[in-house]
Amino acid sequence: MVTHFTTRKIKSDSLKSVKKFALILKILSKIYKLVQSNTYATKRDIYYTDSQLFGNQTVVDNIINDISCMLKVPRMSLHILSTSKGLIAGNLRYIEEDGTRVHCTCGATAVAVPSNIQGIRNLITDAKFLLIVEKDATFQRLLDDNFCNRMSPCIMITGKGVPDLNTRLLVKKLWDTFHIPVFALVDADPHGIEIMCIYKYGSMAMSFEAHNLTVPAIRWLGLLPSDIKRLNIPRDTLIPLTKRDQMKLDSVLKRPYVTCQPFWRKESQRERGRNIGRGRSRLHAPRARCGIRSRISRIAPRAKGRR
User: Does the annotation count 47 as an active-site position?
Assistant: First the structure.
């Protein structure tokens, strides 16, 4: 959904960009060796090969993104991995690239999202739906509530806030493989809506790779701004919107994929109107969790194939 882009020129004979040019060549040489030897490295590994030269991790991250965009290939094709921070639980089994068999369960312990999503194979599940959970605390609370078993076979995944690349890749792989309904469970605030948009439509930073990372079929399960009144969520669980929250919400409302969806726009505008006297609601409220379980039980069985 990117309507504009910028182009930078890096020249070897320009004092202004000679260091950046040298760093790009340095990382390209690392990538060449990885591809030739069919091995993989994380961005952190590359940074520590010469931390004094690179200065900080962000420099390495930005150059790798630039190279991926310049060559028009996914980062995985460069044999560069990201360290995963996401977690997954529920009805899912698969084999990792090194042959390790992973059996996710509905118990209290989740499994870390693999670092090499492209390498996992033999995925098996009886899940009726996939639930993306914005925050780790909410994810753990649902596990403690035995959510997966109580709501029929399902898969739950969290990126612990803004999702890392591997979490987004795994959501995409699960959708491509099983085509089961995918729901997003986020806070009823601008940042929750933003995170849901990253899973569904992509991010500006990785816009050149959006087709490999997004699942347009994701449905907004909750917590909806309209749920605050419907579920009688207590006022003391509401957090006032800050000026930064309001700016984020205004930005979201201007995006083409929100303006063309009346339901999303209506709910987002409810959030804006609630700024006076109330605020945003988090998923920790017991009534919010009960409402979410009720909504899933109604729509999950008949949602397969819908968008």
Answer: no
**What mean pLDDT is predicted for residues 201-230?**
79
Residue 279 main-chain phi, psi, to 5 deg: 145, -160
Q: Residues 48, 94, 199, 201: which is the catalytic one?
A: 48
- Rounded Cα gap, residues 288 and 282, in angstroms: 8
Statement: residue 119 has pLDDT above 50: yes
Provide the mean pLDDT of the chain.
79
Distance CA 50, CA 57 (A): 11
* Portion of the chain with pLDDT greater than 90, in percent: 21
pLDDT of 92 higher than 50 = yes
pTM for this model (two decimals): 0.71
Closest C-alpha to 241, from 272, 219, 263? 272
Angle 117-120-122 (CA atoms, 0-180°, nearest 5)? 145
Number of residues assigned to the chain: 307
Q: How confident is the model at residue 31 (pLDDT cuts 50, 70, 90)?
A: very high
